[in-house]
Amino acid sequence: MNKYKKLVLGIILDAIGCASFIIPGIGEFSDIIWAPVSGWLMTSLYKGKPGKIAGIITFAEEALPGLDVIPTFTLMWFYTYVLKKE
User: Fold this and answer.
1) Where are the transmembrane segments (predicted)?
2) Where are the domains of the chain?
3) pTM for the whole thing?
């Protein structure tokens, strides 16, 4: 997948994660479903050890209340394509 398509997809997935704040009460319940899905999506988008670590971090960030505002997919893209140039 093109790196810019990954960026757009990451921003969309981060927005979905933040959407739980829109519906009070129901939002935290939706995180029970979204946390494992987002962890799996992260490991699918970014392969190898960095993807696995990011998947665990994404799962924890979505599962813990109040941390949904952290854009983990966008941060992982920034790490992969800006900070970790090979």
Assistant:
1) 7-26
2) 3-83
3) 0.87
